[in-house]
Write a structure and sequence with these properties.
Layout: H1 6-9, E1 16-23, H2 44-58, E2 61-68, E3 72-79, H3 81-86, H4 89-99, H5 115-122, H6 125-134, H7 138-157, E4 169-172, H8 176-187, H9 189-193, H10 199-202, H11 206-218, H12 262-278, H13 285-293, H14 298-309, E5 313-316, E6 319-322, H15 328-335
Antiparallel strand pairs: 1-3, 1-4, 2-3, 5-6
Helix pairs in contact: 2-7, 4-5, 12-14
């Protein structure tokens, strides 16, 4: 079956959820330890995390899940065109000028525009109309991410040329089940790829950020680690038509993603991880319960597991080893220490 073109996948001016992915040129390890040169480029993954946090402050786009790997990245985006249509001209101009200040800014920061610059751009009706569309456009979001990382890496290496393999890949997630399965895939991507999990690398994924935020709350500290990610639990009272922006401005809205708690999601991750690594016989009553609540059949879960979560062998630098899935309770302890989630109720 032929792959859909981009304009068929991403519907212009309409809300949607998209899984976007991008690979380094020739799948080289340009964001991890390069086995050929011996250089370690892992710090570039922090660039990606910092850049995404700026982009969600400027775009009318939520980030639901993300993972930066040694040679590729994943990000799940939800477009919010209604939110962009509600923005005033000066707000649109201010956000755009943070992204395109008129000169390159490749140090992880941004230049806050002056009021004079904002007012000048706001007067240009044609430009502002274009900005309004672009700030809820997946292609412009990925362009602002990919181009920034490529230019900064080329400057660091004192080289020119391609950093990414080509244009980013994109597929639409049209149901909550598709969003859930894709979220599980993205959050377990480090485990599947056989990467060494450390507090430094785990924090560069949506899973690590949300676990860290959960621990901040448990320890009585302000929740800061995941404030730029979309709220996890779907708010049933959220007004789709009003598309109310978030008061914090760290993320576009407080709408949420899935009709489940993050604690239940952690349990589901652990059950799926175990079942796919140990075989069909390992399907537990808890996993069966989750599938019933989410209206997902075991055949659908197996299909998703084969596509996304099968353990595999990957070559990391000079070593080749079989992937071993860690227990998610151990991942929580890796971030900062916590008790495993309780049994689901209901």
């Amino acid at each position: 079956m032929a792959r859909k073109s981009r304009h068929q996948t991403v519907l212009d001016g309409k809300p949607g959820i998209y899984h976007c992915f991008q690979r380094c040129v020739r799948r080289a390890f340009l964001m991890g330890r390069d086995g050929y040169s011996g250089n370690d480029y892992s710090h570039r993954r922090q660039w990606i995390a910092e850049r995404i946090q700026l982009l969600v402050r400027c775009f009318a786009i939520d980030v639901g899940f993300h993972a930066s790997m040694s040679n590729h990245l994943h990000v799940v985006l939800r477009t919010l065109p209604r939110l962009a249509r509600r923005m005033g001209k000066q707000e649109l101009a201010r956000r755009w000028l943070r992204l395109f200040p008129g000169k390159q800014v490749l140090d992880g920061n941004w230049i806050e525009p002056t009021q004079e610059q904002v007012e000048e751009l706001a007067k240009d009706k044609k430009k502002i109309a274009d900005v309004r569309k672009r700030l809820s456009d997946v292609s412009w979001f990925m362009r602002c991410l990919d181009e920034y990382v490529a230019r900064r890496a080329n400057r660091e290496d004192e080289m020119s040329g391609r950093f990414w393999q080509g244009r980013f890949g994109c597929r639409s997630l049209e149901t909550e089940k598709e969003l859930l399965v894709c979220g599980v895939y993205v959050d377990l991507n480090q485990l599947r790829a056989g990467e060494d999990l450390t507090p430094q690398t785990l924090h560069l994924t949506s899973l690590g950020c949300r676990i860290a935020a959960r621990l901040e709350e448990e320890n009585g500290r302000p929740r800061t680690a995941d404030t730029w990610l979309s709220a996890f639990t779907l708010d049933p009272t959220f007004d789709e038509e009003a598309e109310i922006p978030s008061d914090s401005r760290d993320r576009p809205t407080e709408k949420g993603l899935l009709a489940m708690t993050f604690e239940s999601y952690l349990q589901l991750l652990d059950e799926v991880r175990r079942a796919t690594s140990e075989g069909e016989a390992a399907v537990s009553e808890k996993l069966t319960w989750f599938m019933e609540q989410l209206s997902i059949t075991w055949n659908e879960m197996k299909k998703a597991a084969r596509r996304y979560l099968e353990p595999c062998a990957r070559k990391q630098a000079a070593d080749t080893q079989d992937v071993k899935f860690a227990n998610l309770a151990e991942l929580t302890a890796l971030v900062g220490g916590s008790q495993p989630a309780t049994e689901p109720s209901g």
